[in-house]
Predict the structure.
Amino acid sequence: MNTILILGAGKSSTFLIDYLADSCGPKGRTLILADLDLDAAQDKLQDRSGTRASQLDTQDEQKRRTLISEADVVISMLPAFMHPLIAADCLELGKHFFSASYESGAMREMRAEIDRKGLFFLNECGLDPGIDHMSAMKIIDEAKAKGEEIVSFKSYCGGLLAPESEDNPWKYKFTWNPRNVVLAGQATSRYIENGELKFVPYHQLFKRTETIRFRGLGDFDGYPNRDSLSYRQVYGLEDIPTMLRGTLRRGGFCKAWDVFVQLGMTDDSFQLEMPQGTTLRQFLNAFLPYHPELSVEEKLAELIPDLDFPAFEKIQWLGFFENRKLPKTKGSPAQLLQAILEIDWELQPEDRDMIVMQHLFEIKTSEGIKKISSSLVSFGQDSVHTAMAMTVGLPLAIAVDLFLDGKIQLTGLHIPVIPALYEPILEELGKKGIGFEERIH
Amino acid sequence: MNTILILGAGKSSTFLIDYLADSCGPKGRTLILADLDLDAAQDKLQDRSGTRASQLDTQDEQKRRTLISEADVVISMLPAFMHPLIAADCLELGKHFFSASYESGAMREMRAEIDRKGLFFLNECGLDPGIDHMSAMKIIDEAKAKGEEIVSFKSYCGGLLAPESEDNPWKYKFTWNPRNVVLAGQATSRYIENGELKFVPYHQLFKRTETIRFRGLGDFDGYPNRDSLSYRQVYGLEDIPTMLRGTLRRGGFCKAWDVFVQLGMTDDSFQLEMPQGTTLRQFLNAFLPYHPELSVEEKLAELIPDLDFPAFEKIQWLGFFENRKLPKTKGSPAQLLQAILEIDWELQPEDRDMIVMQHLFEIKTSEGIKKISSSLVSFGQDSVHTAMAMTVGLPLAIAVDLFLDGKIQLTGLHIPVIPALYEPILEELGKKGIGFEERIH
């Protein structure tokens, strides 16, 4: 068992490819890297021994299945909706499957068949989901082993900028899919706090922030993220009184972003068409009540009573009070906003990104409540070798490497919440400099 | 041509059935009333000459088509999603079709075939849509005939309570589908004001109200309703600078309803399950931020800074600050809220409802801007003979009656925006006491 197939040679695959391509020579493995863009795939492999690139349109079922047939393990770095299709091919052709994406319902329906065929399918083995599960479960399992009770668990993660690249008032640029950033949080967030179920609608989300601190990096805004309640079962914490998972932005980002949310400018539910030549100022005005005399600035201040200067400055920096033209005039409000932001929040070649993750535990011990914070900070090298690509790709690469080395000996459908997975993977991540700093308060 | 088939004998069909059943004897017509509930249908017909009831499960295609085959004109009072199915049957079997619902895309696809077969299909011939179109187009066509230019048209409609039945602080009870009332406004509202396109997201909608006055009835809140922009074309007002269609509630209703919107309690996008025995107070608390000391009332006041006593009193009257148990604990927040309101906002047998509609025109004439307001107020008799059923059912009944009498001689797919339709229908409505009071300001 020594042939690896990676589907997708995009930006987030860089570290994954390097780690596994480097292993081919020493470990006598074969790596096939398949992408629609053959040049890009060849570029990433750099003729390393045992590796080859292959041109693949994933819709070409025959070619796809031929490639999968050649492999022992298949890693899908394709868009999430493709995973069930690839996983179904793997199931039929008897191949092991790896992804960094959420384990879907479609994947769970394959569970019995995966078991029956003795295959190993691993999902959620990237950053978030991935490193979050592994680092949290290590602390949870340790506490449980000591007979301690976890009474509160909050976990936050963010893909942001290294401080020296925070050169705009938002302290933000796109290091990830812009559309996902613009639409972030549109599902009602659910969590539990001190035994009280809490539901946060989208238009309250960016007001419902908590300040999260990282040593030497300062303050971040954390807002609750989707359905934290379902993670009680995933983590074996069914009766925990407080459980919240959230997303991090730089301090002040959420208050300014909330202006767009309040205006309705992140709305993706309908299509509009602004006249050609519409300015950002006019676009903003379309979300403000009509007034015969008040200026756009005055109407905005009236609509958002708690608008402060730091938030105003961020909106202003994007050009919303000027006569700059809309880069896109037809689409949903969210699509028009995204087109504006893609210009102003573009990651520059020399920019370095930053991944921050923090777990906050409150654990009942025989000596009272122990508070643990466990923090990960990871910096990118440049706009290609990002911390995002590293922290998403390395856990998956390591999992595949350990599996092929026989150091992970599991079958069935898994996410990395069991010691047999998280212990060896976290150990290797540590060697690569991806580790958590734990503090007991 | 003298056989009428009415599909659906529900509450909103009462006046429609009476009008057409009464016409059977004098005009030698046959009326078939089909409903799942045969007793209800028989009850409504009261053995009037020429009428008969028929039991019909609309999913029973064979029986449905047999009934349609017997008729010359078919009136669908079924839920809106059924109309295209019934219309397709009518098209195939060569029958004329009438409904009070919106003309759907599916219906428009049938247009060429309707024309080819020389059939008459009429939709949007109820209250809103229906009377609104007819009464507005009369004023619009008159102005155009005089060479005047309509520069502003706002149109509001509401299904409310007669003043003597306004015996709760909301001055509201359900006179129409409760689910539609709870979810009202969840599509982004779009209109144009003084040439400026305006988009209003749901969470701003109930703040963006205009006060609308009716002589002798006092103040109402009007909020913009869905896509007013598309009506520019329907009414032949493509270049109008101001065009808005809206919904009316009693003054003060919107500010209190907005509290539920802000909390996220009208959210229908996810399912929750509250523990058995959860109180309304605890349900409200689930939408408030956690605080170790503040009361539910204090947290609510903090979340909704402009909460005033009239709004607070309305929420309080529903029992949200008490330990009353939730009538339903599993479903979307909107479904749980609806279950509460269905108890407190239930129309009592002696209650009378009220329909209010007002058009506000600004018309450029040779003498300057002329302002016209045209208002309709209609009262129900009791909780069965509602103004809602009367104003929805009579326009449709009259249209069918006129068509069978040969006084409407049209073929093709229509809504009542042309004089050949609105003139005779408005005239008959006037004889039934449904008329507009026009004032020039």
Summary: Chain B touches chain A through 32 residues (CB under 8 Å). Residues 62 and 68 of chain B are 10 Å apart (CA to CA). Chain B has a mean pLDDT of 96. Residues 131-256+349-379 of chain B form a domain with the Dihydrodipicolinate Reductase; domain 2 fold (CATH 3.30.360.10).
